[in-house]
Write a structure and sequence with these properties.
Two copies of one chain form a homodimer. The radius of gyration of chain A is 20 Å and the shape is globular. The first copy, chain A, is an alpha/beta fold and 388 residues long. In chain A, 36% of the residues lie in helices and 15% in strands. In chain A, helix 4 packs parallel to helix 11, helix 5 (160-174) packs parallel to helix 6 (188-202) and helix 9 (269-278) runs parallel beside helix 10. The longest helix of chain A is centred in the first third of the chain and has 20 residues, at 106-125. The interface between A and B is large, with 45 and 44 residues.
C-alpha cells in the first residue's frame, strides 16, 4: 500500500450566524483527499477528511509541511507488518520536525489529514470506521446508538425568545431530547429568560445546556453561574477564556452544584492534561468537548483519553465538539459520552449521513466502509471533483 | 496616515544545525513589508517585520486573514487622535474574528505584521523604536546597554568537546560573558563533561546555561537536574514539554538550588499566566523567554508582562528568545533582563545591526529611525526587493 496523492483545498463555510465572540461569515475549512495505489470498482481508493468547524482553513500547512513529508516517505514508514496503512504511523511521519508547544492551526491541518487517512484505512479494510476503531482500540466494544444533542440557540433578530422556542420545538419533533443555546449576547436577566424559554420548549431545564463561547471575564462568569445554578441547566460551557484554568477552578469551587463543560479550544493532550490538573473539573460531574478534527486527529485524541484516564476520567465524560461524522465514529467505537449535532448550522461540514434519524436523542451509524462522507450528499458534492 | 500595501513572503531559513528534537534544514520564515501613504526622501515609508526563528513560516495566515482585515479597515481604526499609526489599534483590527485558544502559527503571523507596524510607526515618527517604546510604555526609562548571551553549543561531528571549547572561546573573544549550550543529544555523563568543557572555555560555570529544548520526560529531566545542580550552571532551560507545568513544578521542588528558564514555546498571555500560576517558577531566581516575534508581537508581550507583574515578576526576569533586533529594542525600551544572541546560527533573521560590538556582555542599539533592519545588510537584502 502506497499513498500516491494528497490533495488539499480551502472551501468557504459561509454562515450568517455569530456566537458571543465571533462572526462566522468569513469562516473557511480545509478539505483533504488522500489516495492509495489500490483500486475498488476500478477506481483508486481515496480517503476524505476535513478541518472542523470554528477555526479557519489550514490548507497551507497541509500543502507546505505535512503532505510533503507523507508523500516523500517510504510506504514502510506508514504501513504495518502486513503492509496495510497504519494511520498512527503516518501521523508520526507527517509531524516530524515540528516543535513542541504552539498547538493551533497545525492541529487543524493534521486533523484533516488524519481523518482522511482513517477513512482510507477503513475503506481499504472494507469496514465502517467505528468497527475498525472498536476492534483496534476498545476490545471490540462499541455503541450501536450514539447520544447526540442539538446545538443551536443563536440570537435572532425580532422576537428572539419566540424564535428560540420554535427552533427548539423543531429539534424536539425531530427526536432530540437535549439542546444547547448561546448565552452572553444579551444582559444576564434577558439571558436567563431565554434559558427559561428554552427549557419550556425542550421539556425540562435538565435538557438545556448553555454556552458562553469563552466570552466572560471572571466577575461575569461568576454572576452567570449564580444565575444559572438555581435553574439546573444541563451544563455551563466555556464561561471564560479556554486557557484560564484558574477562572474555571473558581467557578466549580463557588458553584459546585453546576455542571461545567469545556475543551473545544484545547488542541493537544498537553493542554488537556493541564485542564485536568488545574481547572478544578470533576470527573463525576463535568464534560470535556475536545474535537479530534481540530486537534491533530485520532492519535492525539487517544493520548487525551490516556491523560484523562490517568486523572480519573471516563471516556463517557467526553462529548466532542463539531457535530461531524468523524467524531460520531469515535463516539461509537471508543464509547464516548455522545456527540454534538448541528441540525441547522455549519453545513455541509457539520451533520451526519443523509437520512440519519434521531430517535430518543440517539443516532445510528451506517455500515458503509470508511466514515461514510459519500452518504452525505451536500458534503460529498464538495469532495467529488477533488478525487483523482 | 493610511496603510496602502502589506506584502508577505516565505523565505527559506536553511541551516544544517539540529537541537535535541528538531532539524532546522527545512525551516522557513515569513517576511512582511507594510507600506504607508507617506513618503520620506521621495519614497513610500515601509515597515519591515518577520516571523521569528524556530517555528515555520505563517505567510498564508498573513495573506488570507490578517492583512485583508487591516487593508480593508478605515484609517481611523488604526490611528490615534493625531492621525498617527497606532500599532496597538491595528493589532485589534487584524485579529478581529479570531477565536480564543489555539495559540500557534497565527501568533507568528501576527508577530511578523506587528513588528513591521512598529518599525513603520517609529520611522514615521523619525525615532528609533527603543525610544518610542520607552516613552510610551516605560516612563521614558531605557537601557543604553543591553545584556546579551551567546546561544550556540550545538553538537558537532568529530571531537565535539574540542569544537565546543573553540566555539565558546570565540564568543569570549568577541566580548560575550555568558553562553548557552545544548544538552540532551548525548548521554547524561557525556553531557556533563560537555558542560564542564564549556565552563572552562567560558571562564566559569555561572556563565553557562544549558538547554534541553523540551526533550526530556520527567525521569530524565530529574536525572539531569540531579547532575546539573551541584555544578552551578546559569540556568537549566526547557527540560520537559513546554506545556508540562507539573513537570516544571516538580523540578523546582526537588532541586530548588537550580535556576530554570522557559517560555520560548508559549505564545499568549493566557499560556504565560498558566506558567506563572502552575509551574512552580520563582520570580527571584528563574527566567522567562517568550519571543514577541512568535507570540503576536508587542501588544501581547505587554499583556504577558502585565500578568507576570500581577504574579510578582519583574520585567528584568524576561530575556526573550530569538536573538533578533526587535526583541533587542524591547529589552532596551521596556528594560527587560536582556536578550538572546545567535552569533553563529539562524542568519540572517537572527543577529543585530552590522558592526554591533559586544562589550562586557552588552550591546548598544543604533539611533536610526525604526528597528534598523536596513543596518543589517544580509537581512535587508531579503527585504529590499519586496518594498514598493
Amino acid at each position: 500500500m502506497k499513498l500516491t496523492r494528497l490533495h488539499a483545498q480551502t472551501v468557504p463555510l459561509r454562515s450568517s450566524i455569530r456566537n458571543a465572540l465571533v462572526s462566522f461569515a468569513e469562516m473557511t475549512g480545509t478539505l483533504v483527499v488522500v489516495t492509495a495505489d489500490e483500486t475498488r470498482d476500478g477506481r483508486p481508493v481515496s480517503g476524505l477528511g476535513f478541518g472542523s468547524i470554528g477555526r479557519y482553513a489550514a490548507t497551507a500547512i497541509v500543502q507546505d509541511r505535512l503532505a510533503p513529508r507523507l508523500l516523500a516517505a517510504a510506504p514502510a514508514a506508514y504501513t504495518n507488518d502486513a503492509g496495510e496503512l497504519d494511520p498512527l504511523r503516518a501521523w508520526d511521519v507527517m509531524l516530524r520536525n515540528e516543535k513542541p508547544g504552539g498547538h493551533g492551526e497545525r492541529s487543524v491541518a493534521a486533523g484533516a489529514i488524519d481523518m482522511a487517512l482513517w477513512d482510507l484505512a477503513a475503506k481499504l479494510a472494507g469496514r465502517p470506521l467505528w468497527r475498525l476503531l472498536a476492534d483496534r482500540f476498545n476490545g471490540g466494544r462499541h455503541d450501536a446508538a450514539i447520544s447526540v444533542y442539538a446545538a443551536g440557540g443563536y440570537y435572532q433578530d425580532g422576537d428572539d425568545r419566540a424564535a428560540l422556542r420554535r427552533e427548539i420545538a423543531g429539534y424536539r419533533e425531530s427526536g432530540y431530547t437535549a439542546v444547547k443555546i448561546k448565552i452572553g449576547g444579551a444582559p444576564l436577566a434577558d439571558d436567563l429568560r431565554r434559558v427559561e424559554a428554552a427549557a419550556e420548549a425542550a421539556g425540562g431545564m435538565e435538557r438545556v445546556a448553555v454556552d458562553a463561547n469563552g466570552r466572560f471575564d471572571e466577575a461575569t462568569a461568576l454572576a452567570y453561574a449564580a444565575g444559572l445554578a438555581p435553574l439546573g441547566v444541563r451544563w455551563y460551557e466555556e464561561a471564560g477564556d479556554p486557557l484560564d484554568y484558574g477562572l474555571q477552578a473558581r467557578l466549580a469551587e463557588r458553584f459546585p452544584g453546576l455542571a461545567y463543560a469545556t475543551g473545544e479550544n484545547l488542541f493537544s493532550h498537553q493542554d488537556v492534561r493541564n485542564l485536568a490538573r488545574h481547572a478544578g473539573l470533576r470527573p463525576a460531574r463535568d464534560f470535556l468537548q475536545m474535537d479530534p478534527a481540530l486537534s491533530y486527529g485520532l492519535p492525539e485524541y487517544l493520548r487525551m483519553l490516556d491523560v484523562l484516564r490517568a486523572a480519573g476520567w471516563s471516556p463517557r465524560r467526553c462529548i466532542p465538539h463539531g457535530g461531524h461524522q468523524f467524531s460520531l465514529h469515535l463516539a461509537a467505537g471508543l464509547q464516548l459520552g455522545g456527540n454534538e449535532s448541528y441540525p441547522g448550522v455549519f453545513q455541509p461540514l457539520g451533520g451526519f449521513a443523509d437520512g440519519t434519524v434521531v430517535t430518543d436523542g440517539t443516532v445510528r451509524l451506517p455500515d458503509a466502509p470508511g466514515i461514510g462522507i459519500e452518504l452525505k450528499s451536500d458534503l460529498f458534492a464538495l469532495f467529488r471533483p477533488l478525487r483523482p
